[in-house]
């Protein structure tokens, strides 16, 4: 079984400030972890993914995330927010084996608002 | 060229009707998926096909039937629509499945009246 909890359904930051979106996961097998972004009325776009290589993963648009097994976390960060980062962000987990392999389980999403 | 396309973009229909949503990908991927996003934005996988073969079938009512005529297409047919079926349905594809990046379509917003 696998699940994802995103802490905070809404996060608001000023332009230029640090972005931190929190994600904790639960998985009975080693996980693969993903962050997706959804802009209004659009499909999801992959930001980055962790598939058991380097624990610090760099993605598109200046985002990065660090896999911390001891904390079962995969938080998403960006040093300096831009207005164009305003969107909804989804963390997802997939088991690296077993019945959950190939099956993404998403968190409930975090809406990021960036104000001037 | 759109990588993963869905038609229609919006679908409004009455309870009890039967409707279909079509999905096509031009990425040459082997695996395709259907997801349902409810009114609270919760996204859940419904089905996955690899080379026209069903490989993931979550707990979905029998009224939902996916059909894959070839590996570039995965259609979703819904019988006897209910109010609770109102949602946004996303199609996605990936190269071979597993941890490969999934590319999502723009979604189909289904409203059942």
List the helices and strands and how they pair.
The complex is a heterodimer of chains A (116) and B (113).
Chain A: E1 2-7, E2 10-14, E3 19-27, E4 31-38, E5 44-50, E6 56-58, E7 64-68, E8 73-78, E9 87-95, E10 105-106, E11 110-115
Parallel strand pairs in A: 2-11
Antiparallel strand pairs in A: 1-3, 3-8, 4-5, 4-9, 6-7, 7-8, 9-10, 9-11
Chain B: E1 4-7, E2 10-13, E3 19-25, E4 31-37, E5 43-50, E6 53-57, E7 64-70, E8 73-78, E9 87-94, E10 103-104, E11 108-112
Parallel strand pairs in B: 2-11
Antiparallel strand pairs in B: 1-3, 3-8, 4-5, 4-9, 5-6, 7-8, 9-10, 9-11
Describe it for me?
The complex is a heterodimer of chains A (116) and B (113). Chain A has 116 residues and is mostly beta strands. Chain A contains no helices and eleven strands. Chain A has strands at residues 2-7, 10-14, 19-27, 31-38, 44-50, 56-58, 64-68, 73-78, 87-95, 105-106, 110-115. In chain A, strands 2, 4, 5, 9, 10 and 11 form a six-stranded mixed beta sheet that branches. Chain A has a five-stranded antiparallel beta sheet with strand order 1-3-8-7-6, with no helix packed on it. Chain A is globular, with a radius of gyration of 14 Å. With 113 residues, chain B is an all-beta fold. Helices cover 0% and strands 56% of the residues of chain B. Chain B contains no helices and eleven strands. In chain B, the strands form two sheets. In chain B, strands 2, 4, 5, 6, 9, 10 and 11 form a seven-stranded mixed beta sheet that branches. In chain B, strand 5 and strand 6 form a beta hairpin. The N and C termini of chain B lie far apart (34 Å).
């Amino acid at each position: 079984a696998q699940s994802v909890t995103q802490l905070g359904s809404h996060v608001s930051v000023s332009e230029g400030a640090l972005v931190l979106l929190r994600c904790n996961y639960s998985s009975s097998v080693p996980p693969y972890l993903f962050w997706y972004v959804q802009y209004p009325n659009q499909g999801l776009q992959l930001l980055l993914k962790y598939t058991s290589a380097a624990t610090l993963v760099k993605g598109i648009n200046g985002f990065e995330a660090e896999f911390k097994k001891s904390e079962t976390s995969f938080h998403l960060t960006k040093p300096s927010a831009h207005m164009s980062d305003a969107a909804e962000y989804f963390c997802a987990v997939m088991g690296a084996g077993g019945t959950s392999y190939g099956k993404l389980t998403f968190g409930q999403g975090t809406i990021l608002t960036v104000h001037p | 060229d759109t990588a993963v396309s869905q038609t229609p973009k919006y679908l409004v229909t009455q309870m009890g009707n039967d409707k279909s949503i079509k999905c096509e990908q031009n990425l040459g991927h082997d695996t395709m998926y259907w997801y349902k996003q409810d009114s609270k934005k919760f996204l859940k996988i419904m089905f996955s096909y690899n080379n026209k073969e069903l490989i993931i079938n979550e707990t979905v009512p029998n009224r939902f039937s996916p059909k894959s005529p070839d590996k570039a297409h995965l259609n979703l047919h819904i019988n006897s629509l209910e109010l609770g079926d109102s949602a946004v349905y996303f199609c996605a594809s990936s190269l071979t499945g597993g941890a490969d990046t999934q590319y999502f379509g723009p979604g189909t917003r289904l409203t059942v009246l």
